[in-house]
User: Which sequence fits this backbone?
């Protein structure tokens, strides 16, 4: 697997995890997070807070899902497996933004 493919698959994991949750405004800046399903009302809230905190709650789960995917599959990427890399070097490789193609 290439590094680019690993990051793409990790990004898909992130999106899938984020899409499993829904942040809903209530009053003012307040909101709550629920599962993105038919029971998406406040009585089934997984988290309550200001709307921005609700968004952060969801984003953190997406980031965690992506990192878990990377950890589980990084041994498949020669760039990450072929030599001893520091944590900082691995994070720098993972953080590269690919060139945009149109």
Assistant:
């Amino acid at each position: 697997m290439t590094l680019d493919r690993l990051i793409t698959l990790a990004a898909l994991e992130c999106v899938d995890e984020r899409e499993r949750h829904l942040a809903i405004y209530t009053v003012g800046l307040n909101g709550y997070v629920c599962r993105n399903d038919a029971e998406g009302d406040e009585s089934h809230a997984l988290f309550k807070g200001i709307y921005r905190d609700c968004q952060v709650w969801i984003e953190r789960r997406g980031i965690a899902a992506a990192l878990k995917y990377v950890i589980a599959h990084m041994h498949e990427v020669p760039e990450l497996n072929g030599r001893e890399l520091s944590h900082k070097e691995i994070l720098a490789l993972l953080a590269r933004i690919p060139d945009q193609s149109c």
Summary: The chain has four helices and three strands. Residues 3-94 form one domain.
